[in-house]
Amino acid sequence: MTANKRIVLSSDHSAIQLRQDIAVHIATLGWEVVDIGPTTPESTHYPKHGKAAARLVASGDCRLGIILCGTGQGIMMAANKVKGIRCGVCSDTFSARMIRQHNDANMLSLGVRVIGDGLALDIVDAFLTADFEGGRHATRVDMIEPLEG
Ligand code: RB5
């Protein structure tokens, strides 16, 4: 399977079950899932998991990434510190579609304490089935990376 169907999943301790449910779901859609854990419920620190997933996307090893924590916010902040990562937190399908179409997001973040499991899977579907539109949006996206210090 080529790198463009590889997707990395990670989370902190709060979202292990939902992450594993998402892994099963997207594997049925033909994605090669690289689930980097964690798998045990001890309290852990979302920045290290966000960073680890983001590095696999930034390196090109995985085309996309999905990360989760309680709100989706902390792990998103960590992932966005990795050069080349564009990660958005989504709690609705419209935003999940738009961050692909207009922002060329390469990572999606979800908050397990914010949304239910059914909505989470719909958001994942919206994210994975949308494509970047390019054009004027590419001009804007190209302005993001130079902002990185
Ligand atoms: C962990 O309790 C919680 O703070 C974390 O999952 C996340 O919500 C942080 O943004």
Topology:
Layout: E1 6-11, H1 16-28, E2 32-35, H2 46-58, E3 64-69, H3 73-79, E4 87-89, H4 93-101, E5 107-111, H5 117-129, H6 136-141
Parallel strand pairs: 1-2, 1-3, 3-5, 4-5
Helix pairs in contact: 1-5, 2-3, 4-5
The structure holds D-ribose (RB5).
Describe the structure.
- This protein has 149 residues and is an alpha/beta fold.
- It has one domain (6-147): Ribose 5-phosphate Isomerase B, Chain: A, CATH 3.40.1400.10.
- The protein has 6 helices and 5 strands; from the N terminus they run βαβαβαβαβαα.
- The mean pLDDT is 96.
- It binds D-ribose.
- Residues 12, 14, 46, 69-71, 73-74 line the site of D-ribose.
What's the total number of strands?
5
Helix content: 40-55%
Structural class from helices and strands? alpha/beta
Name of the level-1 CATH class: Alpha Beta
Report the radius of gyration as a whole number of Å: 14 Å
The CATH architecture assignment turns out to be: 3-Layer(aba) Sandwich
What binds here, in terms of ligands, is: D-ribose
Secondary-structure element order, N to C:
EHEHEHEHEHH
In the sheet with the most strands, the strands line up as: 2-1-3-5-4
Query: What is the residue-mean pLDDT, rounded to a whole number?
Result: 96
Morphology: globular
Strand percentage lies at 15-25%
| CATH fold assignment | Ribose 5-phosphate Isomerase B, Chain: A
Largest sheet: 5 strands, parallel
Identify low-pLDDT runs: none
Q: How many domain units? A: 1
Relevant terms:
149 residues, alpha/beta, Ribose 5-phosphate Isomerase B, Chain: A, 5-stranded parallel sheet, 6 helices, 5 strands, globular, binds D-ribose
